[in-house]
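Input set for joint prediction.
Command: fold jointly, output tokens.
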Amino acid sequence: MNNDLLAGLNAEQLSAVTWPAKSALVLAGAGSGKTRVLTTRIAWLLQTGQANPASILAVTFTNKAAREMQTRLAAMMPVNVKTMWIGTFHGLCNRLLRMHYRDTGLPQTFQILDSGEQQSAIKRLLKSLDISDEKFPPKQVQQFINGQKEAGVRAGELSAHDPYTKKLIELYAAYDAQCNREGVVDFAELLLRSYELLSRNAALCEHYRARFRFLLVDEFQDTNRLQYAWLKLLAGPDNALFAVGDDDQSIYAFRGAEVGNMRALLADYGVAGPVRLEQNYRSAGTILDAANALIERNDGRLGKQLWTAAGPGDKIRLFDAYSDGEEAQFIVDEVKALKRDGWSLSDMAVLYRSNAQSRILEHVLVQAGVAYRIYGGLRFFERQEIKHALAYLRLAINPDDDNALLRVINVPARGIGARSVENLQTASREQGVSLWQAACGAGGGRTAGKLAEFVLLVEKLRQRCEPLNLAEQVSLVIDESGLRAMYEADKKDGEERLANLDELINAATGFMPQEPQLAVVEFLTQASLEAGDHQADAGEDALQLMTVHAAKGLEFNAVFVGGLEEGLFPHENSFNDPKGLEEERRLMYVAITRARQRLYLTNAQSRMLHGQSRYPIRSRFVDEIPAELLQVLSATVKAAPVTSRSSWAEPAFVQQKAVARQGGWRVGQSLSHTKFGAGVVINAEGAGDDVRLQINFAEHGIKWLDLRYAADKLTSL
DNA sequence: TCGATCTTCACTAGG
DNA sequence: TGAAGATCGA
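tokens >
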């Protein structure tokens, strides 16, 4: 029966799937059947009797990936996937903490803060400590705290000599204290808490080690320090850690991912080397050749060459537009041409480096009447109406939830303004009680009446919710809080928001809690852990628009990569750091390898960015692709008869367009200044004798220089 | 308290 | 450019 399971695997896949019961690193190239290997590995372990479902723990980064793994596994063999622990790092940690909440010092009903809520908690903390949020921007404090948590370090273990860091450490400590007081945890805390739970409780740790003999990790290149430490803790000395990843697709260093974990795993577990999955089942040969040539320029790779049994396919089409508008027009025209040829819109994608690039595309798409769908933007559980409703629900369970209280104390407006809230916060601080308790005890004052009404409302919600089931509670809260009335009165987008609130009631109706008496808590937890899909109505056949990051893991018959310009892709923020540039190159590698048959690379010679025109030069990444793989298209024959398949064809000669230059300098050019050192031109203004350059210096930051004075201090690099 | 106006800021983003 | 947050006046 094994044969069934293993049929159709290539030699490398087979070697990975049937790897003995010890640790391994699988270096899985783009389109090499990674998910298949992972799920088949689990099925094989079960089928050969090496593992039972309870001894499997599989970790992914996204809920989508976790679901996909479960679905595919269930399709592969009749096994109850519920007995396995398959989920995201955060989902599994949440599970551990809920099960052992007594050992963690958390209330059973602890709530999870998303990053927005974490930030408002920090703002509130700064205010209560009377610390200026100019000197300590909440975002930076948040980054510091999360960074420390991801390094596994608590405030108490830190020390510093400079007053600034000292203050940050104090804030970290105060933030944790506030969270503990309020019974909430942020995302990083989920990880760190469960790490500490296991590392401080030998018996518990031993219990899980004895249970989870087989740990499997997807997208291992995206793990941060703490996640790897967590895995190592669970693996202990005896269990098998099977990690699948691709160092060439590591594009999340900016949020703490450590590609180094891949090499570390080899060393830590004495694995001779990675199993390489290099056969690609997705893209045409030319596309792979381009990807290979590009990524070869990066240093320190584990090394891998993608190849395909399929033919070379089409050349990669290159279009050099004179403006961002022309670039968008080209893409849309080409999409229409492909559609006429029978390609479906949903099998085509436009990828870009940054979300701002979608605007002009949308504009042209609307004009052309082409259906499109943008990934990105608000997700379901991030919408304000949903957050408001959930905040009332939270107050109904636990009125001491200051975050929730602050969110809705004046929504809908009930005459409790900023002033009154501030008074309330002062009172709560002075008395050392929650805002709710302070509100309950509030005596005089101008808004005391309004406050009392709010207290009464929450009390009423609490009492009336008690006997109700989850869906009834959600519904009650929406009606009684006044949210429904508020959105009914809202002419602008009230209708849509009401529809979303109804959708929330639907979600609550269909929700299946593990423990019925904790249904509300579980529902709220799920809402924090799974914010929902980025895109709405997936039904219609529509062109897909998304960032390259969002495209990771996806594939399309035709892919357009737009904005291939120095400063944009690679992004200028990565110019002064070689590591940053390598990550940009990996991002380009990800973009290229999304395409099955057809790949278009486009750039514009002028682009509106932040309301200013820029004249960037073409991205170095285009030049890093061997010329023989490229076919240059040009607009010169745009007026060709409509019988032409595409209105943009290869010209008889490649038109040499003038590159925008200012005083001999170009945007994107690297240079050196006698005083400021190395930098890159990121913008230019003026003409003739009166030219100013904006330069991003590695050491001195961004400066405008007047060429009349600076010209002789600059040298090209 | 609320709306209108001003200022600021800008890459990528999962749980 | 344009969205979002801060500030100001009614």
